Amino acid sequence: MLNIIIFGPPGAGKGTQSDFIKEKYNLTYISTGQVLRAEMAAGTEIGLKVKDIINHGGFASDEIVTEIIEKFIVNHPNTDGFLFDGFPRTVKQAEILDELFERYNLKLDGVLSLEVPEELLIERMLERGKTSGRADDNIESIHHRFVEYENKTKPVLHYYQDKNCLHPINGVGTIEHIFSDICSVIDKL
Ligand code: AMP
Asked: Ligand 1 centre and the CA of 66: distance in Å?
């Protein structure tokens, strides 16, 4: 079994690389952002609760996202491994994930951290906004997402660094090149 977190600031390419990783390593993939967008689109109770916050670039509550993650883990008991994208995004979520792993007898194999300079991230997200239909791919929400990332998500990097499972990856370059760097790391886990 192989359990991996793909980590990085907004626009780093986590979703793009995840598509390749899950295929190659046969992993069960969850993006909390995708799940939350689906809840919003379906107008569920959760969706209505998080809509304004997410569209303005803020975070959904730790309670909501950890509940989504736990349900997902429980619903996939026979998987070859999980690939988490966009989760954990706060230290509290990382602590809860540790508890969930213990409860369901899972082990975290590595955290792949995509590193991309901020100017390039903004450029990528504005470009993506032209076709993504995402209400949060506009300049005001992007700025707010960066503030949230700096304040709440960056500390998660140190959390995993202290556990010796953080693997930095250069997220600048072609999709193929970055994927090949990712595979070199995963193959050694
Ligand atoms: P993403 O698709 O990963 O860029 O996530 C889009 C948005 O969904 C984020 O800007 C947050 O508003 C929300 N979101 C996704 N994952 C989480 C999480 N783990 N904790 C809190 N909010 C989240």
From this structure: 12
- The pLDDT tens digits for 47-75 are 999 999 999 999 999 999 999 999 999 99
Ligand 1 in reach of 11 Cβ (< 6 A)? no
Residue 40's pLDDT is 98
Site to substitute for ligand 1 among 6, 17, 29, 32, most atoms within 8 A of C-beta: 32
- Does the CB atom of residue 33 touch ligand 1 within 6 A? yes
Prediction pTM value:
0.97
Structure tokens at 92: 């509290």
Residue among 29, 41, 37 nearest 5 (CA): 29
Name, in order, each residue with C-beta under 8 angstroms of 112's C-beta and a sequence gap of 6 or more: 4, 5, 6, 7, 167, 169, 182, 185, 186
